[in-house]
UniProtKB/TrEMBL annotation:
Pfam families: Thy1 (PF02511). One of its GO terms (biological process) is methylation. It comes from the Bacteria. Catalyzes the reductive methylation of 2'-deoxyuridine-5'-monophosphate (dUMP) to 2'-deoxythymidine-5'-monophosphate (dTMP) while utilizing 5,10-methylenetetrahydrofolate (mTHF) as the methyl donor, and NADPH and FADH(2) as the reductant. Pathway: Pyrimidine metabolism; dTTP biosynthesis. The active site is at 199 (involved in ionization of n3 of dump, leading to its activation). The gene is thyX. FAD binds at residues 95-97, 103, 188-190, 194. It catalyses: dUMP + (6R)-5,10-methylene-5,6,7,8-tetrahydrofolate + NADPH + H(+) = dTMP + (6S)-5,6,7,8-tetrahydrofolate + NADP(+). It comes from Corynebacterium heidelbergense. GO terms for molecular function: flavin adenine dinucleotide binding; NADPH binding; thymidylate synthase (FAD) activity; thymidylate synthase activity. Gene3D superfamilies: 3.30.1360.170, 3.30.70.3180, 6.10.140.450. This is Flavin-dependent thymidylate synthase. Its EC number is 2.1.1.148.
Length: 250
């Protein structure tokens, strides 16, 4: 029986920062936003923070966003582990070329059960949900049958692991777009801002929008200075979106 899985995103890594001992730097928050400020100040050696208007980290980062000096945000990065994402959504996510990805291999790891991501619009309707899960079951059963059939064809191949890999890489073609995938995604803060600006927007696909909003929440926890300008709001259909006044040049 097909299993509908939920989105699960964990922050598994982010930048730490240590200022050199010979530079007088308040170690208020040894994190990515402090590093971005340090990098910006390194351009003019204004480590002593001469401008009172940008003396706090939050004010400095706001200034960076105002003037579009976004390259300094590239020094800090964050890594997420995403589970409960459909293969179709992961395809959209991986169009963002500035990130690094490590994705679960369908060639090495067999689809032992039909784990699928239900589109929200279908999950809300019991009849459509049952129909969707039935289709997932059928493709998973066919996947199993193709695997068995191919096991016979590839017996000449002496290496057992290779034989299985060849069978899986062919059989996976029948699995649906909704099949769950898992991956690690690393990007710098500028790339995360760009990803959120594009994918948490109202017109993005509902699933990738949910991913972008959840990533934003996690990023706001570790670096409110860099991500607080994005605000999350609810759409009429109950899903969420996020936008920022800086979105056009994020
Ligand atoms: C609502 C929506 C609908 C979409 N529909 C489609 C669709 O129908 N078909 C489709 O194919 N795609 C579609 N996309 C995907 C879209 O075209 C982009 O591929 C994707 O959003 C990645 O964003 P990006 O191009 O800004 O690049 P990213 O890879 O996120 O790169 C970030 C930025 O780096 C710079 N950059 C990166 N690579 C280069 C480069 N080679 N040269 C110059 N500058 C570069 C650009 O400034 C870019 O904006 C859609 C996206 C959205 C948000």
């Amino acid at each position: 029986m097909a299993v509908a899985v939920d989105l699960d995103i964990r922050l598994i890594g982010h930048t730490a920062f240590t200022a050199p001992e010979d530079i007088d730097w308040d170690p208020q928050a040894p994190d990515g936003s402090a590093l971005a400020e340090f990098a910006g100040r390194a351009c003019y050696e204004t480590f002593d923070k001469p401008n009172p208007h940008t003396a706090t980290n939050a004010a400095y980062i706001r200034h960076i966003l105002d003037v579009g000096h976004l390259a300094v945000l590239e020094h800090a990065s964050a890594t997420m582990y995403l589970r409960g994402v459909s293969r179709s959504c992961s395809h959209e996510i991986m169009r963002h070329r500035m990130f690094s990805f490590s994705q679960l291999s369908q060639r090495y790891v067999p689809a032992e059960e039909a784990r699928v991501v239900l589109p929200a619009a279908i999950a809300a309707d019991e009849q459509l949900k049952a129909l969707f899960l039935r289709a997932a079951d059928v493709s998973h059963d066919v996947y199993g049958e193709i695997l068995q059939g191919l096991a016979g064809h590839t017996e000449a191949q002496s290496h057992a692991a290779l034989r299985l890999k060849q069978a899986r890489q062919a059989a996976r073609a029948v699995l649906p777009n909704a099949t769950e995938t898992r991956f690690v995604m690393t990007g710098n803060f500028r790339s995360w801002r760009h990803f959120i600006a594009m994918r948490a927007a109202e017109h993005a696909d509902a699933e990738i929008r949910a991913v972008a909003v959840e990533c934003l929440r996690l990023l706001q926890e570790i670096s409110p200075e860099v991500f607080a300008d994005f605000s999350i709001s609810q759409l009429r259909d109950g899903t969420q979106m996020a936008t920022s006044p800086y979105v056009s040049d994020s």
